[in-house]
Amino acid sequence: MDCTPSNTASIILAAGSSGRMGIPKSLLKMPGGATFLEQAVSAYLETGIRQVVVVVNPTVHKVLEYRKPWFFDDVTFIMNSQQEKGRLFSIKLGLEALEDRQFAFVHNVDQPFTTAELIGQMMKKAEKGSYVVPAYEGNSGHPVLLEADVIAAVIKHCADCKDLRTIIQPFYKNIVHTQNPLVCENINTPDDYRRVFGVMPG
Q1: Has residue 175 been placed in a domain?
Q2: Neighbours of 24 (CB within 10 A)
């Protein structure tokens, strides 16, 4: 089955405590003014993907509920009140919420540099029994696109493994080579933000 916007979903992970950053990373702003979460949602909607699931913690959800950003009614929010269980648990919650589990992107909100163009390139590489990642100069980046067999394995083995990489390693890895080094960036701390954007978060 071909990977198309109609059978592809996106899971955006925004449930972390953001302890090192000091404020929720989903609410950090890009230079143009959009929040990291807005940037991510926009990229997926631009490609035609309509099933966008955002896994949030109660604090972030309350803020979003109050602010009502433009995308608020266009995504499905899944609550994770057990952040101590880690990222893989959030991924499982998001995958279990999907209406169609043919293909799904897994996107960390602190990696806000995904573009509609990159998403489209990754979708063209998707095939049965595989996952797709972008890479810059040999270094794998983000997001990751999972096919149905991989999705099923993640849901099944979530409780037995510590990270996504361990579960998907047996599957075939398709790579989209890019000249954009930002696909390998994580904005985890104020210093990361300053290094990438040239200013402190505010």
Answers
A1: yes
A2: 22
